[in-house]
Design a protein that fits this description.
Blueprint lengths: L6 E5 L4 E5 L16 H14 L7 H12 L2 H15 L1 H9 L5 H9 L3 H13 L4 H11 L8 H12 L15 E2 L3 E2 L7 H27 L15 H20 L15 H27 L16
Antiparallel strand pairs: 1-2, 3-4
Helix pairs in contact: 2-9, 3-9, 3-10, 6-8, 9-10, 10-11
């Protein structure tokens, strides 16, 4: 049964039969086990069913792999859950020196809103804000006498203060983002937590590449709005870097529209990501336009109307 040829199925009116054809001699088993032909048949059939027979194309392999990883929405949710646990002690220390008393700190850490506050702290830091200086100012801005939930109040204050993406006024630092969208979790943490975060960081980056490559291979309509990829090595790299941010945005928010960014964002977090993806779209189109200007014989680039870069 080690040398198997073809597997043929015929369909009859009353029953179905499977036949196994042996095209070549099996030098290891010249004499079939006539005492148990049924066992030999089952073994041969099992071997056929286990044999794929055709190599997957590169595109099929990429598709299967990134489907196995899960979407960026799923991976980002895992990343944020791990980050909250990994940075707990750090944010607790920040709260302790922010001007809150010990009872207020305990209330914040026990609040249902602490998860949102933790994510907002990570987002603000990734955007280049100095939390050691900023957070105490937010605590001192107004009291909490009438606050039903201090964590919710602090989250709202922080979100309002750091709503604009990095580079848009308060800071000029390059944001520390995964696939151009997901804020990185930095600072001291256990080795296990750091490894878990790094693994998901890598998977998110790989997923963004896979989604973009699949979209370009399949010529999905939204990719035409990116303009033509430049031929220059440096500009092509920049074009792709911005294109994958859009691919990551579409995957994170399950955008299926033919336009690159789809419908208007629904949440505050998506609004921030939408602004980043919109700026990335404009930059990609700019690189494509430069390529078109260098090659006058090319057709004009089809561009979406996008607002000013943020």
């Amino acid at each position: 049964a080690s040398n198997l040829g073809r597997f043929t199925m015929t369909r009859g009116a009353d029953s179905n039969h499977a036949y196994v054809g042996i095209d070549r001699e099996d030098h290891e088993h010249l004499e079939p086990p006539v005492d148990d032909p049924e066992r030999m048949a089952r073994a041969a059939l099992y071997g056929v069913l286990q044999h794929v027979g055709v190599e997957l194309s590169a595109h099929e392999t990429i598709t299967l792999e990134h489907e196995r990883w899960g979407s960026i929405a799923e991976l980002a949710a895992e990343y944020e859950t791990i980050a909250q646990a990994a940075q707990h002690d750090r944010w607790a220390a920040l709260l302790a020196v922010s001007g809150l008393d010990s009872e207020q700190v305990d209330d914040v850490l026990a609040s249902d809103a602490y998860g949102a506050l933790s994510a907002e702290l990570r987002r603000a830091e990734a955007n280049g804000h100095h939390l050691d200086r900023l957070f105490p100012r937010l605590v001192a801005a107004r009291g909490f006498v009438d606050a039903a939930d201090i964590a919710s109040v602090l989250h709202a204050r922080l979100a309002k203060t750091t709503a604009r993406p990095a580079g848009s006024g308060r800071t000029r630092k390059t944001p520390r983002l995964i696939a151009g969208l997901v804020p990185r979790a930095d600072g001291p943490m256990s080795t296990d937590m750091r490894q878990a975060l790094d693994e998901r960081h890598e998977l998110i980056e790989q997923r963004a590449d896979a989604v973009l490559d699949t979209a370009l291979t399949d010529r999905e309509p939204w990719t035409t709005r990116l303009g033509e990829k430049p031929t220059g090595k440096g500009e092509a790299k920049q074009w792709r870097r911005n294109a994958r941010i859009i691919a990551a945005y579409r995957d994170r928010y399950q955008i299926t529209a033919t336009s690159p960014l789809g419908p208007d964002p629904e949440t505050t977090v998506q609004t921030i990501d939408h602004a980043r993806a919109k700026a990335a779209l404009q930059r990609a189109q700019t690189f494509a336009t430069r390529q078109n200007q260098k090659s006058p014989e090319r057709q004009p680039v089809n561009r979406d109307h996008v607002g000013p870069q943020m």
